[in-house]
Structures are given as structure tokens and as C-alpha cells.
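Long-time lurker. I teach an intro course on protein structure, and each term I like to show students one example going from raw sequence to a predicted 3D structure in C-alpha cell notation. This year I'd like something fresh instead of my usual example. Would anyone be willing to generate the C-alpha cells for the chain below so I can use it in lecture? Attribution to the forum is fine with me.
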Amino acid sequence: MADGLWAVNSIVLWAKASQNGEMKVFGALIKIGLVCVALVACAPLSIYYKEGAEVTRLQTDQLNCEIAALSDVPVSNQIRQEPPVYIPSRRYCDGAGRCHIRGGFFEPGQIYTVDVNANLRGRAEGQCMAQKGYAPVTVPNCPNAVFRAAPKGATQVLPRLSAQSCVIQYQDDTWQIVNQSG
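-- Reply from a regular --
Happy to contribute to a lecture. Here you go:
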């Protein structure tokens, strides 16, 4: 009977340890998610660029190219699964020296979906934008001093870019390209 009680207690203790471990993992995932959100806000601005183009025209052209690319290269989702992982058996002993071996087991691989046309669709969008005279560019974020000194206002017309160009990104998803005097 003592062995039976130990077996029951080991299940309960294992379940508690598992739940605590899951909570720690969940908390870590939340922290990672918040860091990712913060980093995205700090990421440089990647846009299609054509000097002198109005931002509204850029947005319209990009939307039209996205729609055309989606029409030409539709979503093609495939369901995939990672391989299973074998967890080997483990030996557990209590303070009295009684030991118990928990057999090995397989954890199934995660199932996920992948759009196999995503890369080609992105290339089709880029080709469409190139035909309209745009080129992809990445503009670095402005230093804090420039951010504080520049008058707030979203860019309406894409300016000439230089090595001193930087961007101020606002929380409402607008941005302002600033040409710093160097």
C-alpha cells in the first residue's frame, strides 16, 4: 500500500511541478512578447521609396500591388508537423531511498501552417512596385536629440534621402523622415 500511495503522490507532485513549470514558461513568453513589441517600435522603417511621391500615393500603389500579388500568387497553406521528441525514462528516489522509474515517452511534434507562396507573393509585390518606380529602402531611427528637436508632423511627400536621413515613428503608425544637418 505504501508503494501505491507513493505512486499517487508522485503523480500529484509531478502535476504540481508541471503546472509551476508551465506558469514560468508562460510568464517568460509574456515578457518576450513585450520585448518584441518594444523592439518593433524601435525597428528602422522599411518602405518602398520614390523621391517626391506623396505618401498617400505610395500607400495606394502598395495596396494595389498587394492585391495584384495576392490575385496572381494566392495563399497556399500547408499543414506541417515537427518530428516527435523522445523523452527518456528517469529514475526518481524519495528520502527513504525508495526509487521509482518513470518510463520514456514521446512528445508529439507541434502542428503548424505555412503559406508556401508567401515568398513568391512578396517578390511579385516588389516587382509591381518596381514597375511603378519604387525601390525598397530602410531608414534608421533618429537619435533622441533629433526626435526632441524636430517639429512633430507626418511626412506627406517623400523627401530626397541622404546618409543623414532618419525617421521618427509615431504611435499612430505615421512617420516623419528627417534630414539631419551634419
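Some talking points for your students: Confidence is low (pLDDT under 50) at residues 1-23, 36-40. The chain has four helices and ten strands.
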